[in-house]
Structure formats: C-alpha cells, structure tokens
Amino acid sequence: MSHRMLSVAFVALVLAALGMTTGCNTVYGPHLGLFATPPIPVSPYFQDRLEDQAVWQERYARVPVLGPIPAGAPHVAMDPPSEDEVMRVLEKAQPVEGGTPFLHTTQRDNVRIVVEPIADYVDPPRVYPLIGPAQLHHAHYKCIIYYTKTTRVGWPIPYTDTDQEAQEVLYIDHNHFHMVGNVDTGPGAQF
Question: For residues 157 and 76, which has the higher predicted lDDT (pLDDT)?
C-alpha cells in the first residue's frame, strides 16, 4: 500500500511541476517557487518615460516613404508639425515635468504656437540602401511658442515668479522620401 501511495505522490508532484512550467505561468523576476511572486512596484516616472519614448518612435521618429511626385505637380511637404510634436520637442529641450511640490515647481499656461515654414525643397533622385531610387524631400519649420511661465518656490522664502511674455523658438525638420520611377504599390508589391 505504501508503494502505491508513493507512486501517486510522485505522479502528483510531476504533474504539479509540469503545470508550473507552461507558458501561461512564466514569471520574470524573483521567483519564490510554490509561493506567489511578489509584485514589483514601478515608479510612474519610468512608466511615463517608456510610454513617451514609444509614442515618439511611433509618431515622429520614422521617415516615411511616399509615392512618386507626379510630373508637373507642385512638390508640397507633408503636414506641418502638430501642437503635440512641438510641445514634446519643447519638453525635451526644456523639461518642466518633475520638480518638487512645495519646494520648486514650474508650469506653462496660456500656450500659443505659431508655425512658419522656412524651406521646402526636393533633392535630386539617388539610390538609397533598403529603399531604392528615391528623392529626399526637406521641409523646415520655425515654431514660436508663446506662454506664461509660472515658477513657485516654497523654501526658504516662499514666492511665485510669473513671466507673462515667455517665448521659445524651435526649428523642426520634416524629411520624407518620394519613390522615383514606375513603382508598383499594388497588393503583391514587395519593398
């Protein structure tokens, strides 16, 4: 009888071990065996930073490849920089996030953005690796940001400084490619 109980216990142990090694139960980080893995807190700072990097990569970091420019048609650049893109570039250049509440904080209010095109030109065709024959289309923009900057300092002497006429000037380039020649962009086309 004890031999039978020993074999049943062994089979139960093997099934439990197999159940823990399936893909659904894979755990990264410290693993405590049969006990549950404790949750590992992630700072909101790091989570926001990773999300911002993903949004920037998805929206603005890639150079699109567009169809050819029709003969005789004017070459007009893609859309000018959006307000979101301008504010993200400004935040990279002069960060406002963070600060220490009740000690030192800065904020921007009443933001107004003016976007002016500076240049719009197309390079002659050439062969680019991984793209093929293409033309590089340059579009340069001057972005002026007008805002009210409020700085609050809480220690050692509390005071608030407000700059009603703060402004920043950013230069943003929107470059993209245009394919050259008779290009098949149908369903079976390979790039």
Answer: 157
